[in-house]
Write a structure and sequence with these properties.
The protein has 315 residues and is of the alpha/beta class. The chain has helices at 23-40, 58-74, 93-108, 117-121, 125-131, 136-154, 166-179, 182-187, 211-221, 233-254, 258-278, 302-314, and strands spanning 12-14, 19-21, 49-53, 77-84, 111-116, 159-161, 191-192, 201-203, 285-286, 293-294. It has two domains: 34-277, Rossmann fold, CATH 3.40.50; 282-315, no CATH class. The strands form three sheets. It has a six-stranded mixed β-sheet, with helices on both faces. It binds adenosine monophosphate, FE2/S2 (inorganic) cluster and zinc ion (2 copies). One zinc ion (ZN) binds at residues 3, 5-6, 8, 21-22, 24-25.
Length: 315
């Protein structure tokens, strides 16, 4: 097939726009989609320093490269960080990712920080898996969310960018409906204002990019990233989450643009209403150990509670 724009050989087809694209025009289309969405959803309004959370996978590696390339259009400086969670399980997962992420930071030429969970907080996610009776990915999620905000602050950033893609968001929206979790649904936004008393805003610039679009772009650009998923990922997804995603992909196959419409219409028409109704109604507390916000009715945040448990079992 020929590129719908220049007539050269096409390497990518966008089914929901019926567009064939050559390598050059696919790259332009992909990047402009990010720039357009970032502007439409005011992701970088007022941003001076944007910290990209880079895990070593395709999505965040691509986000680092694309944000650095387009930072001038928005007027911010890109910085980055990696959280070494100490996941091994015979795969050296965290170690391998660390090396790849460092190479990308150096290649792109940004200031960066490596957060060492074991060195700075005294435990790894592998330790937590052995010693805390809770699904390991839920512990890991708490740790990552907490340390991501902190790392962005330490880098002097006012904005934290994560690489959640459209598949992640669609899965989140659909399972929010299925399980009726309105609180989660109301917060799952591509732009989250800073927590009370803090200044880091959280953005998801790829929230309307399909996972396969990011993968194809990353491969065409020749980026170095880690293909293998976290060794705990099978445990995390669970059968029902995986089935939901597979069902959505089947509908997407019959109705191109289904997931895009699901997420963009949710964000435009439904979530703002849920947010007004639900968020702000619960009384958020303050962690008496670290001073950050806690869930309503709790005086210690989830991260400090995990840390306490880990340090207690160590001694
Ligand atoms: P996940 O929670 O694994 O779905 O990852 C969501 C986003 O969090 C990724 O797209 C990255 O931007 C970020 N992230 C995940 N793991 C790490 C890590 N170890 N270090 C830095 N950022 C991460
Ligand atoms: Fe956290 Fe897999 S990345 S458990
Ligand atoms: Zn072309
Ligand atoms: Zn705390």
């Amino acid at each position: 097939m020929k590129c719908s724009i220049c007539g050269n050989e096409a390497v990518h087809y966008v089914p929901y726009e019926r567009l064939y694209l050559c390598k050059e025009h696919y790259a332009e289309w992909f990047e402009q989609k990010l720039v357009r969405n970032a502007k439409r959803y005011r992701m970088f309004d007022g941003s001076r320093r944007v910290a990209v959370a880079v895990s070593g996978g395709k999505d965040s590696t691509t986000l680092l490269h694309v944000l650095k390339k387009h930072e001038g259009e928005f007027g911010f400086t890109t910085v980055g960080f990696y959280i070494d969670l100490g996941i091994d399980r015979g795969t050296k997962y965290s170690e391998v990712n660390l090396e790849v992420v460092k190479r990308n930071f150096e290649e792109v030429g940004v200031e960066y920080r490596i957060v060492d969970l074991k060195g700075e907080y005294g435990f790894t996610i592998d330790d937590a898996k052995r010693r805390i009776n809770r699904p390991v990915c839920s512990t890991c999620g708490v740790v990552k969310r907490y340390l991501m905000t902190l790392a962005a602050e330490e880098l002097g950033a006012d904005t934290l960018a994560t690489a959640h893609n459209l598949d992640d968001m669609a899965q989140f929206v659909l399972s929010g409906y299925v399980y009726g979790n309105l609180e989660h649904l109301s917060r799952n936004s591509p732009v989250e204002e800073p927590e009370r008393g803090f200044k880091v805003k959280k953005v998801k610039p790829f929230f309307l990019h399909y996972e396969y679009e990011v993968l194809h772009y990353a491969v065409l650009m020749g980026y170095q990233f880690v293909y293998d998923p976290c060794p705990y990922s099978e445990e995390f997804r669970g059968v029902s989450q995986h089935k939901l995603l597979m069902s959505m992909k089947r509908i997407e196959g019959d109705t191109p643009g289904f997931m895009l419409n699901l997420v963009s219409n949710f964000e435009r028409n439904i979530r703002p209403m849920l947010y007004r109704e639900i968020s702000g109604s619960g009384q958020v507390g303050t962690c008496k150990i670290c001073g950050r916000p806690t869930a309503p009715g709790r005086d210690i945040c989830s991260f400090c509670s995990i840390k306490q448990k880990m340090l207690a079992v160590r001694g």
